[in-house]
UniProtKB/TrEMBL annotation:
Keywords: DNA-binding, Transcription, Transcription regulation. Transmembrane segments: none annotated. It comes from Cellulomonas flavigena (strain ATCC 482 / DSM 20109 / BCRC 11376 / JCM 18109 / NBRC 3775 / NCIMB 8073 / NRS 134). Residues 13-81 form the HTH gntR-type domain. InterPro entries: Tscrpt_reg_HTH_GntR (IPR000524), WH-like_DNA-bd_sf (IPR036388), WH_DNA-bd_sf (IPR036390). SUPFAM superfamilies: Winged helix' DNA-binding domain. The keyword DNA-binding applies. It comes from the Bacteria. The keyword Transcription applies. This is Transcriptional regulator, GntR family. PANTHER family: HTH-TYPE TRANSCRIPTIONAL REPRESSOR YTRA (PTHR38445).
C-alpha cells in the first residue's frame, strides 16, 4: 500500500477504527484502486506499533463492508467494486470540492479535528 496510515493512540477513536476509516478515505479519494494490495496484517501492525489483532479487526470490518477482499496468494486487496459507483460525475465533483476544502482548511491553519468538525456540522444542516 503506497498510502500513509497513522494512528493516534491518545484519540478517543478506537485505533482499529482509525485504520479502517483511513483505508476507506484512501479508496474514496482514489489513492487506492481496485486490486491494490494492502500490507499484511503483521506488517502494518509492526509499522504502526499495534497488536496484529487490532489491524485484523480493521481488515475484517473493511472486508465485511466490501471495501477489501482477502485472496489466497495475493493477500488483502481493494475490492473490485470498492468504489461503489464513485466514478460518477457527481462523485468527481464532490472529490474536487473536498480537495479544495482541505487546501483552504490547511491554509487557514485548522487542525484535522477542527476541519472535520466543520464538515460534520455542515452535514447536519
Amino acid at each position: 500500500m503506497s498510502v500513509h496510515v497513522e494512528v493516534d493512540v491518545t484519540s478517543g477513536v478506537p485505533v482499529y477504527e482509525q485504520v479502517r476509516a483511513q483505508v476507506v478515505a484512501h479508496v474514496a479519494a482514489g489513492r487506492l484502486s481496485p486490486g491494490d494490495r494492502l500490507p499484511t496484517i503483521r506488517a502494518l501492525a509492526t509499522d504502526l506499533g499495534l497488536a496484529p489483532g487490532t489491524v485484523a479487526r480493521a481488515y475484517r470490518e473493511l472486508e465485511q463492508a466490501g471495501v477489501v477482499a482477502t485472496r489466497r496468494r495475493t493477500g488483502t486487496v481493494v475490492a473490485d467494486d470498492a468504489a461503489g459507483g464513485q466514478d460518477s460525475a457527481a462523485h468527481s465533483a464532490a472529490r474536487r470540492a473536498a480537495t479544495a476544502y482541505v487546501t483552504a482548511a490547511r491554509a487557514a491553519g485548522l487542525t484535522t479535528d477542527e476541519a472535520l468538525d466543520l464538515v460534520r456540522g455542515a452535514l447536519l444542516t
